[in-house]
Specification:
It is built from five helices and four strands; from the N terminus they run βββααααβα. The protein is an alpha+beta fold and 164 residues long. The chain has one domain. Strands 1, 2, 3 and 4 form a four-stranded antiparallel beta sheet that branches. A hairpin with a 7-residue loop joins β2 and β3. The radius of gyration is 21 Å and the shape is flat. The protein starts with a strand and ends with a helix.
Length: 164
């Protein structure tokens, strides 16, 4: 397969070949961090399923980035709005204990509104491979795979396995 073929998404423009890896998470274990007992270290075990190569054009990659940014901002706005609404309701509650609980819940929801912003950062990190993952992940999930890695992430995962 050459490096310039028809885009698998739009089938209109020539694209570039991108590779990603996929697998299945088998287990997850958390242990106390011996250097800082307030922290935990999580070890996840994966079974590697394989790799796939997908041809994607620049236009489809740009659309994927834009869509990820828009969805992230909408989700952040919704969570931020709900968090703000819950926080603004707390002073109207007569019970101090209940008001404290409501404030805590509101703060947590407000902070969860920041999480989708991490998706925006991911959209700019290896955008071609992330677009390839978005194109194929649905069918791979139907086959039972739940973990997807860009080449860079996969190499990092491999180097951790070899370090043991």
């Amino acid at each position: 397969m050459d490096n310039q073929s028809l885009c698998e998404n739009c089938r209109k423009r020539l694209g570039k070949l991108f590779t990603f890896y996929y697998g299945k998470q088998l287990s997850e274990q958390s242990f106390p961090n011996l250097n800082n007992l307030n922290e935990t270290t999580t070890i996840k075990t994966y079974r590697i399923g394989g790799k796939q190569q997908v041809v994607v054009c620049r236009v489809c990659i740009a659309r994927n980035i834009i869509m990820t940014i828009v969805l992230s901002l909408v989700l952040a706005a919704i969570l931020g709005g709900v968090g703000y609404f819950v926080l603004s309701a707390a002073p109207k509650i007569s019970s101090n204990e209940l008001a404290s609980i409501v404030r805590g819940v509101g703060a947590i929801i407000l902070l969860c509104g920041l999480a989708p912003l991490g998706l925006m950062i991911m959209a700019f990190s290896e955008p071609g491979e992330n677009t390839a993952i978005n194109l194929r992940s649905h069918s791979l999930r139907q086959m039972g795979y739940d973990a997807f890695w860009t080449t860079k992430d996969y190499q990092r995962l491999e180097s951790r396995q070899l370090a043991k």
